[in-house]
Automatic annotation (TrEMBL):
This is NAD kinase. The gene is nadK. It catalyses: NAD(+) + ATP = ADP + NADP(+) + H(+). Its EC number is 2.7.1.23. One of its GO terms (cellular component) is cytoplasm. The keyword Nucleus does not apply. The active site is at 75 (proton acceptor). Its main location: cytoplasm. Keywords: ATP-binding, Cytoplasm, Kinase, NAD, NADP, Nucleotide-binding, Transferase. It is found in: Cytoplasm. SUPFAM superfamilies: NAD kinase/diacylglycerol kinase-like (SSF111331). GO terms for molecular function: ATP binding; metal ion binding; NAD binding; NAD+ kinase activity.
């Protein structure tokens, strides 16, 4: 049983409408309570997951009171919680109940042994940077957002190409005609940016990636710039152009609007069990250890 000094307040955030989630949640709650820790549910989780003796707590209160947040879901669930908790520096642990699991990396069959290792002080901690952006119309801020993965400026479905003027640290980079532009953190380099042909960036790399989406000029290639950079994307022409922050969309952009993007002063901390490796994650999720067999099936 923990002493008062070692007892922790641990919050659980669980993805909505996940089939079969009740049993894993119950096992995690029972394990934590048996270990003497105080367990709370994030308030939205409490509306769809029930457990005896587990109170609900708002995100702001979790940020101020919790020692650890366990996220049970997919990467999208983790992104949403991470954005909300970024100002509070509360460490996060991800248990994968989704499909891919780049940042919710603990498989559900190993969740209790992994939690035991992490809570015993054997965690592998890593910090991830975020981006913050604001939409400027003349001199007024009309929207803002925070992104763990990426900020994406893109044209609407059925619309023609967008023309975007891009400057970095007040230096003109290019006018680009394309379907859009992805501004990515190292964390987001394995997401949409990867699908658009961008490079993989190690999470500890102090860089920001700019990845064009289907550019008209094939010479417009992805580039990685310093994380201290301030990026301004101005809408020059195009219809139905939107900007989204981790897929949270603001769609009412006009010609002349500017999206100003830079590194956020906040970071998020992920905790992993000992022995965790980013390269192991890449190898598993990107199937780097699989090769075509003679019969056409993948082999390891």
């Amino acid at each position: 049983m923990p002493t008062p000094d070692s007892q922790k307040t641990i919050a659980l955030a669980v993805r909505h409408n996940t089939a079969g989630i009740d049993d894993p949640v119950t096992r995690v709650v029972r394990y934590l309570q048996d270990a003497g820790h105080r367990v709370v549910f994030e308030s939205e989780t409490a509306t769809h997951v029930q457990a005896d003796g587990v109170p609900a707590m708002a995100i702001a209160d979790i940020g101020q009171q919790a020692d650890l947040v366990i996220v049970m879901g997919g990467d999208g669930t983790m992104l949403g919680i991470a954005r909300q908790l970024a100002p509070y520096a509360v460490p996060l642990v991800g248990i994968n109940q989704g499909r891919l699991g780049f940042i919710t990396d603990i498989p559900i069959e190993r969740m209790l042994p992994a939690l035991e290792e992490i809570l015993s002080g054997k965690a592998n901690a890593e910090k991830r940077t975020l981006l913050e952006g604001r939409v400027m119309r003349e001199d007024a801020v009309i929207a803002s957002g925070l992104a763990v993965n990426d900020v994406v400026v893109s044209r609407g479905t059925g619309a023609g190409m967008a023309e975007l003027k891009v400057t970095v640290d007040d230096c003109f980079m290019y006018n680009q005609r394309s379907d859009g532009l992805i501004v990515t953190t190292p964390t987001g380099s394995t997401a949409y940016a990867l699908s658009a042909g961008g490079p993989l960036l190690h999470p500890t790399l102090p860089g920001i990636g700019l990845v064009p989406i289907a550019p008209h000029a094939l010479s417009n290639r992805p580039i990685v710039i310093p994380e201290t950079s301030v990026i301004v994307i101005e809408i020059m022409s195009g219809r139905d152009i939107s900007v989204n922050f981790d897929m949270q969309t603001f769609a009412s952009l006009q010609h002349g609007d500017r999206i100003v993007i830079q590194r956020s002063p906040n970071t998020i901390t992920f905790l992993h069990p000992p022995g965790w490796s980013y390269y192991d994650t890449l190898r598993e999720k990107l199937h780097w250890n699989e090769y075509p067999s003679i019969e056409g099936k993948l082999t390891k």
